[in-house]
Design brief:
The complex is a heterodimer of chains A (about 425) and B (about 160). Chain A is an alpha/beta fold and about 425 residues long. Chain A is built from 15 helices and 17 strands. Chain A has two domains: about 140 residues, Aspartate Aminotransferase, domain 1; about 260 residues, Type I PLP-dependent aspartate aminotransferase-like (Major domain) (Aspartate Aminotransferase, domain 2, 3-Layer(aba) Sandwich), CATH 3.40.640.10. The longest helix of chain A has 21 residues. Chain A is globular and about 75 Å long. In chain B, about 35% of the residues lie in helices and about 20% in strands. Chain B has one domain: Sufe protein. Chain: A. The chains are: A alpha/beta (about 425), B alpha+beta (about 160).
Chain lengths: ~425, ~160
């Protein structure tokens, strides 16, 4: 017992962050892979789920399952209340002004596509421009490309420097009256760069241009305040913040959402239907056609409660410590190059090893029980910008430890030995 | 547990470091692009066909050790072979890396290519080993379109 307490004491870092206690909330973290303890360093792809989120899903299907917004019966009212409570939790999580501004979607990709299809169809025309950045995920590139093809608008790209930072002067010079939207990520999934989104929004708003922020990587790792940012749209996924897959949200300012047409037609999104005319429902239901993903929305609400219980500020501070440690430890290995060295960075470490393809790195680390992502990270233009076909990427969450980073370092040494 | 040393054998590492026939083939009368969009591997295969015979072959591109070694070993194996022989090898190789043909117990025409049989223990890497072979098959069939490992047909 004494030994256990001492070991736990040693795990508490200077922020008094008890990672061993947190790890016990995540059943998957005690799994083994290829006979070794799992070292999960792929949270930028998807985070692991705490027991209470898993339990919430089970509890919903065992005791609450019913359709929402329809029945007068007890279960339907219960499901409706839980589902709408989850919306309010997201509203508070993002500090949105009103819960009507939170639209449930299947995730960030669906949220961005919703804006492209709805806002885009109404406000973007031939000759207009959409601005994105050179470090976007494909899901914040392709919807805009498709919109540009359909409308005859032009896609313009904010360049980045060798550290993986946006060239803000170039961005400022790109703004003009033809630009109908700026869509950039808050944190780059491939490089870890935290973008100066507040400044981007200020500059765009000075010319009355709305801004969409892809918050897929940011929402799990730092406190987001959409009113402080003053962004027009904010998109994120539940599965990256300890919630279930297949659920996420789009925040949109009321005045935009009210003027935007619905994208999908069906149940729940209507006020009344006749064969002559359909009147659409009010916000947010206008954008939520069909039976929604009730269970996962509730699960996402529970995940948000869980993160709030730890504190996003504490999470950010601890993850920053992990990043610093990993940058130092992994960066010191001869032959390793870190891709993405922005001054403001989140806990993503993209790297290459001289003469070894990231795919081979991924396979060898996997045999050690270490899960990293190897590939282009759905950001092929970023890879091209840095002149590499792919990178290996370790991404850290608040349930990771420095010991796991040491295991990664050993795995990288082993990889280098295999190819020596 | 799959054995890493089965996958990364010395011969494979050697082909990765010093790929054979790694050049542009000036005398080629067919060339074919192949992609693995999941990992960004890219390969250009050059064939000089003399009737139905593969007179010369070369490749260029970028990819992981497995895809590069597999392409290198393939070029060495098919040079001088007929179209029909190469197609048989494609079929046997394909079945071997998917674990459907055991080179220890089944008759085959793969020769040294059996060194790549360890890939069958690593399902995530089967596509890496197959890319050059799919590219060859398309080249032999005279396809103009670049081919991708992400075809709806068989998942490899």
């Amino acid at each position: 017992m004494q030994a256990v307490m001492e070991r736990e004491g040693a795990q508490q870092d200077k922020n008094n962050f008890d990672v061993e206690r947190i790890r016990r909330d995540f059943p998957i973290l005690s799994e083994t892979v290829h006979g070794r303890p799992l070292v999960y360093l792929d949270s930028a792809a998807t985070s692991q789920k705490p027991q209470i989120v898993i339990d919430a899903l089970k509890q919903y299907y065992e005791a609450q399952n019913s359709n929402v917004h329809r029945g007068v019966h007890y279960l339907s009212q219960l499901a409706t209340r839980e589902y709408e409570d989850a919306r309010v939790k997201i509203q508070r999580f993002l500090n949105a002004a009103d819960h009507h501004e939170i639209i449930f979607t299947s995730g960030t990709t669906a949220s961005i596509n919703l804006v492209a299809l709805s806002y885009g169809r109404k406000f973007v025309h031939a000759g207009d421009e959409i601005i994105i950045s050179a470090m976007e995920h494909h899901s914040n590139i392709v919807p805009w490309q498709m919109l540009c093809e359909q409308t005859g608008a032009t896609l313009r790209v904010i360049p980045i420097n060798d550290a993986g930072e946006l060239l803000m002067d170039e961005f400022a010079a790109m703004l003009n009256s033809k630009v109908k939207l700026v869509a950039v990520n808050h944190i780059s999934n491939a490089l870890g760069t935290i973008n100066p989104v507040r400044r981007i929004i200020e500059l765009a708003h000075a010319q009355d241009i709305p801004v969409l922020i892809d918050g897929a990587q940011a929402a799990p790792h730092l406190k987001v305040d959409v009113r402080e940012l003053d962004c027009d749209f904010y998109a994120f996924s539940g599965h990256k913040l300890c919630g279930p897959t297949g659920i996420g949200a789009l925040y949109g300012k009321s005045h935009w959402l009210e003027t935007m047409p619905p994208v999908f037609g069906g149940g729940d999104m209507i006020a009344s239907v006749s064969f002559e005319k359909t009147t659409y429902n009010s916000l947010p239901y206008k954008f939520e056609a069909g039976t929604p993903n009730i269970a996962d929305a509730i699960g996402l609400g529970v995940a948000i409660d869980y993160l709030n219980g730890i504190g996003l500020d504490k999470i950010a501070a601890y993850e920053h410590e992990l990043l610093d440690y990993a940058t130092e430890t992994i960066g010191a290995i001869p032959g390793v190059t870190i891709i993405g060295t922005a001054r403001e960075k989140a806990s993503v470490l993209s790297f290459t090893i001289d003469g070894i393809h990231p795919h081979d790195i991924g396979t060898i680390l996997d045999q050690e029980g270490i899960a990293v992502r190897a590939g282009h990270h759905c950001a092929q233009p970023v890879m091209k910008r840095f002149g590499v076909p792919a990178t290996a990427r370790a991404s850290f969450a608040f349930y990771n430890t420095k010991e796991e980073i040491d295991a990664l370092a050993e795995g990288i040494q082993k990889t280098i030995e295999v190819f020596a | 547990m799959a054995d890493l040393s089965e996958l990364y054998q010395q011969v494979i590492l050697d082909h990765n470091k010093k790929p054979r026939n790694f050049r542009v083939l000036e005398t080629a009368n067919r060339h074919q692009e192949g992609y693995n969009p999941l990992c960004g591997d890219q390969l250009t295969l050059y064939l000089e066909m003399d009737g139905d015979a593969i007179k010369d072959v070369a490749f260029q591109g970028q990819g992981c050790a497995i895809s590069k070694a597999s392409a290198s070993m393939m070029t060495a194996a098919i040079k001088g072979k007929s179209k029909a022989e190469a197609e048989t090898m494609f079929d046997e190789f394909h079945r071997m890396v998917k674990g459907e043909l055991d080179p220890e117990t089944t008759e085959h025409h793969l020769g040294r290519l059996t060194i790549l049989s360890g890939v069958r223990e690593f399902p995530a890497r089967v596509k890496c080993a197959s890319l050059s072979w799919h590219t060859l098959k398309a080249a032999l069939e005279g396809k103009d379109e670049p081919i991708s490992t992400e075809q709806p047909d068989d998942g490899t």
